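sorry for the late reply, my laptop died twice this morning and i had to redo everyting from scratch. anyway the thing you sent over, i finally got around to it. pasting the sequence first so we're on the same page, its 158 residues, then the predicted structure underneath. double check i copied it right bc i was rushing
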Amino acid sequence: MKLSTKGRYAVTAMLDLALHTHARPVPLTEIANGQGLSLSYLEQLFARLRRCGLVEGVRGPGGGYRLARPATEISVADIITAVDENVDVTRCAGRGDCQDGERCLTHDLWTDLSRQLYEFLDSITLERLVRRPAVQEVAGRQEPRSLHAGVDAGKTVA
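ok and here's the structure:
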């Protein structure tokens, strides 16, 4: 399995949103600038994330996005699936027609690995990522300390 930029950008942007969603809706321009991501690509991803009920948009002055559910209820697998990424390492996309229309010798091995990858990603929530010291350290480095006072004090932000 190779996770494309679509999945990586979506997880990065959602984690950034989870880190900042406590204060106000976050404009995509802030996420794009803070993470070095393409704004137009983020807009496309957030349209998918919104349709899947992971984020909600707030219009008008001070608008932006916020998590639609608590960070404890959004897994990395939810995010990756929402942007149409597939956690599948089989050659046949799980259909079982990998070798001349039949199952190959290693089909079950790759199917089991795909299932375990999905379960692993599904077990990691945004909240769990937010609490990681390394994530808090990077978040503190990316922006002025005052914006991360809750994170730096060890408090839950999202």
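Residues 5-85+125-152 form a domain with the Arc Repressor Mutant, subunit A fold (CATH 1.10.10.10).
thats about all i looked at so far, will dig more tmrw
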